[in-house]
Amino acid sequence: MAQFVAGVMEFVLGNTFGCTLHCSYGAFWLAFAMFSVPTLGIQAAYNGDQRAFSFAVGIFLIIWCFLTIIFFVAALKTNFTILMVLGLLALSFFFLSIAQFVSTEHTTAAVRLNRAGGAFAVFCAMFAFYAGAAGLMLKDTTFVTFPLGEIPYPSVKREKAAAAAAAAARNV
After folding, report:
1. What confidence category does residue 108 fall into, taking pLDDT thresholds of 50, 70 and 90?
2. Could you tell me if 71 and 21 are in contact, meaning their C-beta atoms sit under 8 angstroms apart?
3. What are the residue boundaries of the structural domains of the chain, listed by start?
4. From the CA atom positions of the chain, what is the Rg in Å?
């Protein structure tokens, strides 16, 4: 719920990307929690068919993996830290979803895949905490700042402006 509220606060600040990420993943946690609430009857709807329920959870997680990949592509011009958060999160969703798909027939493989997904999630959380700390420790508020690893992409506007200036200099 707090992550969803953070998304609303990002909306107020005008940060569309941050709003989309926080609201989306806040909704993920709310939806994922619904699988565990017995009074909703989601798991009971599968009438004890654990394989079908695990497959449904796997589909849920793989959809979030694909959405995270879309967010990763949308974030390519941000910074290294955000790319690491999204990349590791996509890998975590991928391994956790595959673990759900194989959980009823290959329990040993499912345990290993769950551990791999969990490990990627822990590293994702470390990068996310670092990004959060960097967002708090700004030059305006503290003497200590954390670099986010800016990616040195060439600016198309800068290249066009340089080409226009060179053309104008030739015409003079």
Report:
1. very high
2. yes
3. 35-171
4. 21
Residue with tokens 């941000």: 78
Three-state secondary-structure class, residue 98: helix
Measure the CA–CA gap between 16 and 148, rounded to whole angstroms. Answer: 19
- How far is the C-alpha of 24 from the C-alpha of 69, rounded, in Å? 13
- Identify which of 111, 96, 108 has the alpha carbon closest to the alpha carbon of residue 61: 96
Give the whole-number percent of the chain exceeding pLDDT 90: 74
Looking at residue 16, its amino acid is T
**Cβ-count burial of 13 within 10 angstroms (0-12 exposed, 13-18 middle, 19+ buried)?**
exposed
List pLDDT tens digits, range 19-67. 999 999 999 999 999 998 989 999 889 998 999 999 999 999 999 999 9
d(CA 81, CA 101): 30
CA 71 – CA 63 distance, rounded (Å): 12
Residue type, 32: F
Query: What was the pLDDT predicted at 158?
Result: 63
Question: In one letter, which amino acid is 65?
Answer: C
N residues, the chain: 172
